[in-house]
Amino acid sequence: MRVLIVDDEPLARTALVNILAERNDIDVADTAEDAVEALSKLERRSYDVLLLDINMPELSGLELVDRLQRREGEVPSVVFVTAHDEHAIQAFEKKAADYVLKPFSSERIGEALDVAFRRTAGERAARLVEILPQLRATFQPRAERIAVKTKSRVLFVDPANVIAVEAERNCVLLQQTSGSCLLRESISAMEEKLAPYGFVRIHRSVLINSAFVHEIQPWPTGEYVLRVKGPREQKEYTVTRAYKKNLKLLAKSWIGTENFGAG
Fold first, then answer.
1. What does the alpha-carbon distance between residue 165 and residue 182 come to, in Å, rounded to a whole number?
2. 2-138, superfamily in CATH?
3. Can you name the residues that pair with 235 across neighbouring β-strands?
4. How wide is the angle at C-alpha 159 spanned by C-alphas 227 and 169, nearest 5°?
5. Are the beta carbons of 50 and 6 closer than 8 angstroms?
6. How does residue 257 score in pLDDT terms, banded at 50, 70 and 90?
7. pLDDT at position 139, please?
């Protein structure tokens, strides 16, 4: 099976590549950072399945499918992998094989790949009826809280109120807009759990909530300084060279910053 992953989020691309690497039926697993790059790759090589994000700069996943369906030749089976449920009906109208919501699991992606080859029009319609209630249930408004065990208690913390997470020996300190709390967890585990809430790793021992970052300042050493707004004062964090690629995750769109982070 030849698969092309099209997603402008580096973490999502990496996660999908890792999932495909676990399967023994994948012959090719290529990636594209956006739909424009995907079109270029599709001109040079044929693929069986596209794992395709929807919201991307310049050209959306839905627009990419429109272009593929207008050109000559066979269109790969399309599995949309997105954080948004509002495009589900439109996706199935474009003959998508499946529609997977982020954050996804290995099992869910595996299921989508397994069915990507054998979707008839009737099966797509049946799949739409099956999946829409699940999508609506997933996106019902609910409190965005995380449960944190500290000592003998479980605290419920709103990620929107956490400014930074800092490693301290075998623990991590959650710096909040009001106070802080210490819990016994690794910084890597916190990175994985908090990534859906906009937290970005900038140092081997620091995660930052991107919502609190208001300025980036480059240093001649190749490092960067983030200026973060706190409730009472501004704080600075150093972005080490090993993590500077993650700076692109701090914003959805970048204007006039084509060479940002180069070198």
1. 10
2. Response regulator (3.40.50.2300)
3. 228
4. 70
5. yes
6. low
7. 47
